[in-house]
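FORM 7B - TANDEM STRUCTURE REPORT

SECTION 1: FIRST PROTEIN
SEQUENCE AND TOKENS:
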Amino acid sequence: MSLTVAMGAPTTAEADLSRLVVVGDSLSAGYQNGSLLASQQASGYAARIAAQAGVGLALPLIAEPGIPNVLTLVDPGPPPIVAPAPGVSTGRLDPSVVATNVAVPGATVHDALARRPDFPIDSLTDLVLGLPGLFLGVSQSQVEWAEALAPTTVVVWLGANDALAAVIAADPALVTPLADFTAAYRAALARLAATGARLVVANLPDITVIPFLTPAGSVGAMVEAQTGVPAWIVLSLLGLEAGDFVTPDAFALVPAILGNPGAGPLPGSVVLTADEAATIQSAVTDFNAVIADAAAAHGAAFVDIRALLAGAAQDGIVVGGQRLTTGYLGGFFSLDGIHPTDTGYAIVANAFIHALNTTFGTDVPRVNVRDVQRDDALVLPGVGHPAASLAHPSPATAAALRAVLGR
């Protein structure tokens, strides 16, 4: 049975959201299609919460074609053709704006606590947190900015990058140690709670639901459909077993291995084995326990993103009679395979709004997801179940994410 998105009738917001501050990473920054870009930032879940509540949220808007250059869908395929837009961004559209959405793409929990901008202005940390402050002698981390902004409500969604680096590199050793994560997360939430603001806190999804990773079985089916080589032979040549996943970089290597079996198997740098995936999944489960405990300790509204995406992965999400999936080009995730589409972010926004309203008795109206879907170019006609799709992320998606994570 599919999860159907309720639209919700508009009502009057009664919460004290007058000074809303957002702390987080790319997911909270409104990052989409491998890029931080003004037109996409305005469609992020945080911006939609502010709009629904009728309060301001200052965004550090980035000029076209975004940073990194936004990925564009040249041809939906199959297979889809994705390429970065040409040009070079000039950075912030308005460097005089002091952002109240201080989420920085690529940030870990420790980064939110301690990473400050500096000259030269050559990173997203500098662009988000350093303008206009650096020119006034002010250099503060996300948490320090949140403290300085005297918030009434703080939205906190942190921790994804403490596991994501391991996913992108197919290397579980890059997961943040649990002790370090725990210390940093507890410290961040304690400091944000000390401002007197209400907290709205979200947990992390299972890494295997993001279409950045392609299951081995889907790889075999895709290659067989495109080449006629039986899937079992494909998997044998590539060295893949049941439960394994590949990153987008793997697909560029497949033709050479099929043409010359001696060139195989795929290198470990592009394969996340079943055991490695389980290791990262276990770490994320531990992270989520830390997040839930800290949220409860500070009376925060809790947003169960893990459950939301688990349901979407199993049953899809019906919007306007169309079932969205978590597969690549399935309507929920954008071209980078990790960050939501406009429609996906609207669904996430409603999860935050629901938690805010049920915990604090506020009355923020829900986003009309159907309206967002109508204008979303990445909700393609005839979206089907990911198992039946020949779509997968291109190597360009991995390159864009490595650029942001510095890996």
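SECTION 2: SECOND PROTEIN
SEQUENCE AND TOKENS:
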Amino acid sequence: MSETPILSSVRRTSKRLSMAGATRASLNGPLRSSGLFDSIVNSNNSNGSAKRSILLSTPANGNKRRRSSIYHQQSHPPSLQSSANVQSSVNAPSSQQASSQVQLQQQQQQPLSGYRTDPRPLRDKNYQALIQQEIYDFLSKNRFELEMNHTLTTRTLRQPTQKDFVLIFQFLYGKLDPNYKFTKSIQTEVTNVLKMLNYPYLDGINRSQITAVGGSNWPAILGMLYWLVKVNLSFLNINDDELMLPDDPLDVIYVKNTTKAYQLYINQEDLSNITNQMNDDLKIANEKLIDIINNLNSNNQDLLKEYEELNFKIEELKTSEDKSKALESDLIKFQAYLETMESRKLKWSEILNKIQLEINNCEEDLSKLNEEKKDIESKLINKGFTINDIDNLNNERDKISKLIDNLSNKFEDLKNKLNSKDIELNKNYQSLDNFIKQYNNTIYKIPSINYNFEIQLNEGILSDDNFLTIFFKPNDIINKTLKDEKIELLKFRSQLNNKIHQDQDDVIKLQEQGDLISETILEQRESIENLEAKLNANKITYDEIYETMISDTTAYSLQIEKLDRELRSIKINTNQGIIEIENNLQNLSIEFDELNHEIFKQKSILHDKIQKIIEFIINFKINIQSNLENLDDLITEELKIEQNKKI
């Protein structure tokens, strides 16, 4: 009996990514055989089966490596994760599991946007010597001279030729994507590869530097090669086992009991205890999960308390900061006020001197005016006028002017009232005209009227000069009497009411018909809903079948790739055995013909035997039927005899 495979070890792949892009067929090379790209596989299982992910980054310098957990990749996005086009889907681990996860190097903590200057001291001789030694060590350990058939020395990295740079670049990128082929010019290839890898300092490298790497252009090129070396080291330091998440306990229980049940079924043993055992395992797992949830809830409560305390402290800090800012602003304003007051204090002496001069001038003017007043009074006395007479004349003039002003004000008030009444009457006339027009328009809309309800205004009223002084009756304003018009309107309303009642009866009948139609519509709608429910169920089954078909196609594609590789190896060995296979084919064709002839003979013999058996069965059936009929007749005769005996 063959052993059943452990289901938790089966991984369904949804994507395979190449460093050169999804369109390159570079997954059949050594990277797949070494298991590097298998670590980029994500599981589509919704029950939480194991998933893998890769997080790539670059170091900040040559000797120190900053490490960060792959489960914090959202808060610290590494630059090479996007450059390698690696999509990872990782379930969030618990606090105990997070410390055991893989931690990779990081150099770029900020997203790549716009022009970025290279902060590395690439023109420093000591730094150049350091990174040259690391590049040389990496190339030596990975057998650069054997693979590229080119000599490598430390001087090569100090004074490189164009060929040295091309071979080193091709070798370093070949380690990332072995099946990539350099078909274009070196300027285009380097630019495209660095863009694809999302090299953060690509703006500092132009085509002229790539075509002539020596001299002053070499530091930037050397920094780019060092970056590629660190990318390769990041790939080599990845451990697939550390990137694996533990299996879901429910999956473990399900797989264990399923495999056990399958083994019992193969051995034809009793399966009654499997369900009980699975329930016990699920209860134990459930209790563990409840304990974990309780612990998490208690931790969550503690964290919430700490969070509230910190928020309270933060609010106190904010209030104190606001108060300090307000005090600082008040202090600045007070200092500015003091400065302005000091500046004004220096100007007060000048202002006081000017005021004193103005006072002196005013006193001189006042003395001059008093002298002029005395001269005028003396002249009036000489002419025979006293001051009292002049005051009396002024008072009379003031009274007369006030009386004239009062009369003019009364006249203006009367004029304004007359104008306002005129305006009000015009407005009332216009509103009445508009109302009558609206009334006439509504009358025009009523069909089949035997009586003319139209009303017209007497336009000659406004042309009369005594329009404001004459009192007009309603019959003088319109061309009809309102009482007669009201009687006609009441008659017409009664006719309309009768017609409305008839229409309402018709509407009730139509509503009854509509209710019957709505009932039929509801029945049809219920049938449609039932059909929609069936359609949704069919869609769900279709989606399930489609998902299983996709998973099967992915598995079949993997098998096809494996078979393709086997087919290539088989094709190499087939040329040697073609003659033997042809001979065997001829022999097999002869044997096949003989077997066909023998089968035909056996078939004819079997046909004859079957025909004889069928004839025998038919005869046997006929004999049995005849015997049954005879037995029936005999039984009836015996029954008659017995009945006669009883009688």
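SECTION 3: OBSERVATIONS ON SECOND PROTEIN
The mean pLDDT is 76.
The CA atoms of residues 589 and 595 lie 10 Å apart.

SECTION 4: SIGNATURE
Preparer initials: ____
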